[in-house]
Amino acid sequence: MPxxxxxxxxxxxxxxxxxxxKDATKAVSKxxxxxESYVMILLNGSVPMAFAGTEEPAxxxxxxSIGGIGPSVNGKLSSTIAEILETKLSIDSSRFYIKFYDVxxxxxxxxxxxx
Length: 115
Prior knowledge:
4-stranded mixed β-sheet, alpha/beta, Macrophage Migration Inhibitory Factor, single chain, two-stranded antiparallel ribbon
C-alpha cells in the first residue's frame, strides 16, 4: 500500500510519465520491501509551483506507507526518486522535496475497508 504522490511544474508527456511510473514503482517496492502489486504512484504534471522564489523546474512528493519507512529508508527513497526525476525530467535534486508519512493500519483504506 505504499503510495507516492509526485507533483511537478513541468508538463509530462505520456511516454515519460509511463517511464517514471514504472521506475518509481520498482524503486519504492525494492527499497521499502513490499510487493510491486501493493505500490501506487501518482504523477501530476503542469502543477503551478514556485520553489525558492522561481518557477524553474521543481517537484514535490509525498510517500505514505504502513511501516517500511524510517530514517535510513527515507534517505534511500529520497535520493532514488530525485534521481528518477533528474534523469527523466531534468529536475535538479536541489529543487525537490519529499515528505514521508508512516500511517497506522486503521488510517488507510483498501477494498472497501481498512487494513
